[in-house]
Flagellar biosynthetic protein FliR
Amino acid sequence: MIHFSSQQLIELITAFLWPLTRILGLIAVAPPFGNNAIPMQIKLMLGVALAMIVAPTIGQLPGADPLSLTGMLILTQQFVIGLAMGFVIRILFAGIEMAGEVAGMTMGLGFASFFDPMTQGRNSAISQFLVLTATLLFLALNAHLAMLSALVESFSTIPISSDLKSGFSMYRLVIWGEQIFITGLKLSLPIVAALLITNIALGILTRAAPQLNIFGIGFPITIGVGFLMLSLLMPYLEAPIEKLFQQGLNVMMYGGDKAIPLPKPK
């Protein structure tokens, strides 16, 4: 008959609970796992499965009681670290959403919006299209596997410790937030530039022929040019988005100091 002392039972609980908390923190916000369309039971099962795999590989853990103040602080720290790592990838998708919003507003499709269950807010059609494309590319490049691999390796680079000062750099996360605007500008720039030239041409045409109904022909032209540029841009989106995912994984794992190659699809 197997007997466990109270101390051994506490060690077993903490060896599973603290890694599980960090893993669930990432799954809660990181795309595509953080999508609200995925049932909570599936997220919890995935987190438990990963924790069962990771827990035996973790080295020495703090000997704090999980119900003590120190144990609760460590639990909170692990959850915050998981959330921060997940937000690094979420920021990239927010930048892609912004690119779609800017392109859609410039095209005149600002009225073509609907409720997005992921962000719990309004989202334009172009923005949703780019996000779905980026999500498919994220899965096709096996970036989700690289993200989970970075999460597992984080238990070595950011070990579970009672030292609450050790952990993910929140300052780096705040600085990384600028990627929303950088990504949105870079991805939408070709469409915005083409539509700017189109609007200038329409303005010159209006001055040359004042009797021309610019409102009758302006919207179809800008929408048509926008879709044309979007179709021409699609084949060239893979390289910048792949580079963006690699940068996100670098920041998530090493703070941007090292490179994480994406697994090559078979």
User: Anything to note?
Assistant: The chain has a mean pLDDT of 81. Residues 6-254 form one domain. The first helix runs from residue 6 to 29. DSSP finds nine helices and two strands in the chain.
